[in-house]
């Protein structure tokens, strides 16, 4: 059944924002791999349309702040990490040497002379709480730019992070708002049309599917099951694989595959760069011996998948620029509807100062692919 009138139905909105505009606040966003950050190196990122400086100090702690000096707008990431007389490490602006501590407070303005009294600590740049979890760096983005406390949630933790360093990392930027990127990522029906490879599946191999779903922390999961018979890539794992696919807002999707005692975790992180771009980071961990011999093939296949999805995003943009109504149907688009419900509830719970109540209810979804 169609969701709403076929002529006027719009995709549901998130809070007061229209689908495809704005971002969730008061939540952790994936920013980088821990290995991306070297001690003492300042690095510039763009998150949610804002420039963000992320760096690891020489003690190994990760910090993040707005990458704009409040004096003359020079990027702080072009400066240096230096040490003050009291041993604190601070970021020095490349333009006039203004220095800022890890909390964003200004510690010194070199151009001031002795008789020019000024409380430099009142000069601040926005500070973003940052944390590392399982080799991943997350940044907490508050809905209040003046937020100076501790995040109300711990960063995500994933089952199946095994085998040391990731076996595969691939990155790509989609020319799409995170809402469209997420909905495309969780879409179960596009595979036979967008990803037609002999080693995966084809349009001719479609059949009816029924999968159990249940609510999970800030999201939902397709509960553990045997992979579909027309998903040939699982054959390289041998044995009798079981898989579970989980989604969590704002944009984390992971598939945890077990084959006996062996595991494969494929994590896809969607990070909004700005209103029209979303960074996709694909990370795979595994202790399965297949990755010793087949890693180049797996990496090649993953790159193909991402780029095929990217090509479809570009094609979809040809229609989206006319701001059309979007018609979502059950059950193939139920996960997309859940995503919007999760966003609305997350925003409402933060505004009202109450615990988040997951709106997803357990269900069996059916579609053909």
UniProtKB/TrEMBL annotation:
Domain Rieske: from-to ranges: 29-139
Protein's cellular compartments: Membrane
Gene3D superfamilies: Naphthalene 1,2-dioxygenase Alpha Subunit, Chain A, domain 1 (3.90.380.10), Rieske [2Fe-2S] iron-sulphur domain (2.102.10.10)
Coiled coil (UniProt feature): none
A Pfam family reported for this protein in Swiss-Prot or TrEMBL: Rieske
Primary location: membrane
PANTHER family per UniProt: CHOLESTEROL 7-DESATURASE NVD, IRON-SULFUR DOMAIN CONTAINING PROTEIN
Entry protein name: Aromatic ring-hydroxylating dioxygenase subunit alpha
């Amino acid at each position: 059944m169609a969701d709403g009138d076929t002529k006027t139905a719009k995709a549901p909105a998130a809070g007061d924002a229209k689908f495809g505009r704005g971002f969730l606040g008061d939540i952790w966003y994936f920013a980088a791999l821990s290995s991306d950050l070297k001690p003492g190196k300042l690095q510039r990122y763009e998150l949610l349309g804002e420039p963000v400086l992320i760096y690891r100090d020489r003690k190994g702690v990760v910090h993040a702040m707005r990458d704009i000096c409040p004096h003359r707008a020079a990027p702080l990431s072009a400066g240096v990490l230096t040490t003050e007389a009291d041993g604190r490490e601070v970021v020095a602006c490349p333009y006039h040497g203004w220095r800022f501590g890890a909390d964003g407070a200004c510690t010194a303005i070199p151009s001031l002379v002795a008789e020019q009294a000024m409380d430099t600590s009142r000069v601040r740049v926005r500070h973003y709480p940052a944390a590392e979890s399982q080799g991943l760096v997350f940044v907490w983005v508050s809905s209040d730019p003046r937020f100076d406390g501790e995040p109300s949630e711990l960063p995500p933790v994933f089952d199946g992070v095994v085998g040391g360093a990731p076996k595969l990392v691939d990155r790509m930027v989609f020319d799409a708002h995170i809402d469209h990127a997420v909905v495309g990522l969780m879409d179960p029906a596009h595979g036979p049309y967008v990803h037609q490879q002999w080693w995966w599946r084809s349009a001719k191999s479609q059949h009816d599917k029924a999968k159990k779903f249940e609510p999970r922390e800030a999201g939902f999961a397709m509960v553990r099951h045997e992979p579909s018979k027309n998903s040939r890539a699982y054959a390289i794992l041998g044995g009798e694989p079981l898989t579970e696919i989980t989604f969590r807002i704002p944009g984390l999707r992971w598939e945890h595959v077990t084959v006996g005692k062996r595991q494969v975790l494929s994590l896809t992180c969607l990070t909004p760069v700005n209103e029209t771009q979303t960074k996709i980071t694909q990370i795979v961990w595994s202790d399965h011996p297949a990755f010793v011999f087949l890693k180049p093939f797996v990496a090649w296949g993953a790159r193909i998948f991402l780029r095929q999805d990217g090509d479809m995003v570009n094609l979809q943009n040809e229609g989206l620029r006319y701001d059309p109504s979007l018609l979502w149907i059950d059950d193939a688009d139920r996960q997309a509807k859940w995503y919007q419900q999760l966003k609305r509830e997350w925003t409402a719970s933060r505004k009202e100062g109450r615990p988040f109540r997951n709106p997803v209810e357990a269900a069996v979804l059916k579609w053909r692919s």
